[in-house]
Structures are given as structure tokens and as C-alpha cells.
């Protein structure tokens, strides 16, 4: 399978809610050694991954999301010795500000046009209705992004950015226990509606016989639904790794149990969670998945495959 598929992929966490310099490394999950960097990394709300795909003669670098604020993104990229001009394209997983908050700053920092991939619904105003009141609204302005140098590619469908490197497009809801976010609202064409969160997409890298890597922002459509869709897109049932936020803090015990069971049944070789997953869900997944599980932290490098 896949003589011309990616040989490997490295996923570096640039922004996440968590930072722990005492997490130990494994052959696949590398942690930053304390004192190795010239300046300390910073934890910050949101998520940003630098995804580097080894295509043999080409190395494709994709920045997935930009965290809640540019300050954290820029600080951590510089601390890791990385710069904006080594990024070939940017993928915005969905239209929540903890994923696009650093985008305008990043485009200005880069100072040159950049392909930006996302779903068209990210540009509708959104807010959260919570028991403590309304949070938002927030809105990502398309015209401002284009003026700042974003070459927008907005699609609801699967997109193949390079051979074996996919954006999922809209993720079908197949499981009966996943999906949704309490209080999520969208203001679409003047109507205030429950937000179905169809704008969230994930990144999938097909590593052939090694399996697929699924990188998710918040998994609002459900991480199990996301895995099912990734397998269909690639035609590859082997699951190498699942990485990202799983948004399980607000779900019932039954949903948590069924999610954990499905992840075990998926036979993933690695599950790395952070950001919006939640402390108790992380603890439960660690208990149930054992050595398959790793907590995500700023500065973590997940190294998958290779020649």
C-alpha cells in the first residue's frame, strides 16, 4: 500500500493548555528537556500544531490552528527555534477563537501570502450561552484575513493537500452518543441558531502500512466519528495515532465510557490528548488505555514513521 505515500510525520505542539517539563519521553513521544531551550515555553488556552510531513523529496509543513492569542504562538515558535516562513500552509480546524486567535498576528509576522484552508462556516458569528451568561459573540472576518495575506481555500469537502495528506471536510455523525456542544450558538444569515458545529474538520496523514495519523482540534463532531471518517477517506483501517482535543469534560459518564471503549476497540497505537479534553477524561483515558495514552504538553513532538 502507498509506495508514494508520506514516509513519516512529526507533530509538534506549539500551543496547548498544558505544560509539564517532567513528562518523560518515549521513542515516539518526545518531551522538551528542561533547560535545553534559551527561553521557557508558555502554556496558553487553545491549540496549535506544527505538522511536518516527510514526502521523500519534499517536506510539507502545515500549521494547524494558532491558539487563543498570537503572543503565545510567537513566543513558543521562537523558543522552539521555528519561524513563520518555514510554514507552507495553514489549516484552521474550526471557527472558535481559541483556534484562530493568533491567526491575524501570524499572517502579519510572516508578511507574505499564505494558503489558508478551512470550512466556509468559520466566518459566521458564534457565541456560547452558559448558565453564567453569554460568552461572545466572536467573529473571524474574511476580508481582514485576505487583506493580511491569507489565500483562502474554503471547502465542505475532503481536500488532499499533498499525496496522503487530507483535510476531512465535514465529518458525518454516525455514532449515537457523540457530537454537539451545550450552549453553542451560531448567527447565520440573521438567524440565531443552535450551532451544529459542521465547520470542524480534522487532519489525516496516511502512512500506508504503518497506519493513519488523525489530528483533531476539538473533536466537536466526536473523536470516534472523526476516526471512522478518516478511515473511509484513506481506505486504511490501521490507526497509528490520534492526537488533539477531544472535548469530553461536559459529557455524561455513559458517553465517556463508550468513547473510551471505542478508542480501545480502534486499536490505536497511540492516543495523545490535551487542550479541551478535560482533566477527568484525561485521567480516565490514561487508566483505560495504559501505555497507549500520552498527555499532550507544549513542546511535545510526536514522531511517526520514517524511512
Could you name the key traits of this structure?
Metallo-beta-lactamase, Chain A, alpha/beta, single chain, 7 helices, 30% strand, globular
Kindly state the number of beta strands: 19
CATH architecture: 4-Layer Sandwich
Instruction: Report strand %.
Output: 25-35%
Radius of gyration: 18 Å
Summarize the structure.
With 307 residues, this protein is an alpha/beta fold.
Structure, described:
- With 307 residues, the chain is α/β, with parallel strands linked by helices.
- It has one domain: Ribonuclease Z/Hydroxyacylglutathione hydrolase-like (Metallo-beta-lactamase, Chain A, 4-Layer Sandwich), CATH 3.60.15.10.
- Helix content is 21%, strand content 30%.
- It has 7 helices and 19 strands.
- The strands form 3 sheets. An 8-stranded mixed β-sheet has the order 2-19-1-3-4-5-6-9.
- Strand 7 and strand 8 form a beta hairpin.
- The chain starts with 7 loop residues before the first strand and ends with a strand.
- The mean pLDDT is 95.
Amino acid at each position: 500500500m502507498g509506495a508514494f505515500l508520506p514516509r513519516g510525520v512529526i507533530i509538534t505542539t506549539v500551543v496547548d493548555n498544558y505544560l509539564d517539563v517532567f513528562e518523560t519521553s518515549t521513542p515516539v513521544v518526545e518531551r522538551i528537556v528542561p533547560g535545553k531551550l534559551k527561553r521557557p515555553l508558555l502554556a496558553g488556552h487553545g491549540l496549535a500544531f506544527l505538522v511536518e510531513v516527510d514526502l521523500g523529496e519534499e517536506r510539507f509543513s502545515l500549521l494547524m490552528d494558532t491558539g487563543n492569542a498570537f503572543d503565545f504562538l510567537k513566543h513558543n515558535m521562537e523558543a522552539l527555534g521555528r519561524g513563520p516562513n518555514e510554514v507552507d500552509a495553514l489549516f484552521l480546524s474550526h471557527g472558535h477563537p481559541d483556534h484562530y486567535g493568533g491567526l491575524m498576528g501570524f499572517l502579519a509576522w510572516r508578511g507574505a501570502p499564505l494558503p489558508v484552508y478551512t470550512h466556509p462556516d468559520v466566518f459566521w458569528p458564534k457565541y456560547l450561552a452558559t448558565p453564567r451568561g453569554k460568552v461572545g459573540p466572536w467573529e473571524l472576518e474574511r476580508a481582514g484575513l485576505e487583506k493580511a495575506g491569507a489565500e483562502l481555500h474554503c471547502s465542505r469537502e475532503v481536500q488532499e493537500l499533498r499525496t496522503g495528506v487530507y483535510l476531512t471536510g465535514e465529518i458525518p455523525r454516525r455514532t449515537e452518543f457523540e457530537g454537539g456542544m451545550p450552549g453553542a450558538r451560531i448567527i447565520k444569515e440573521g438567524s440565531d441558531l443552535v450551532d451544529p458545529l459542521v465547520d470542524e474538520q480534522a487532519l489525516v496523514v496516511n502512512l500506508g502500512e504503518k497506519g493513519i495519523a488523525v489530528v483533531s482540534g476539538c473533536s466537536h463532531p466526536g473523536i470516534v466519528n472523526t476516526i471512522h471518517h478518516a478511515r473511509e477517506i484513506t481506505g486504511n483501517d490501521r490507526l497509528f495515532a490520534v492526537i488533539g482535543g477531544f472535548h469530553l469534560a461536559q459529557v455524561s459518564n455513559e458517553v465517556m465510557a463508550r468513547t473510551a471503549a471505542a478508542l480501545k476497540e480502534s486499536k490505536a497505537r497511540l492516543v495523545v490528548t490535551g487542550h479541551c479534553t478535560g482533566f477527568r477524561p484525561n485521567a480516565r483515558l490514561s487508566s483505560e488505555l495504559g501505555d497507549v495514552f500520552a498527555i499532550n504538553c507544549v513542546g511535545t513532538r510526536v514522531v511517526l514513521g520514517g524511512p
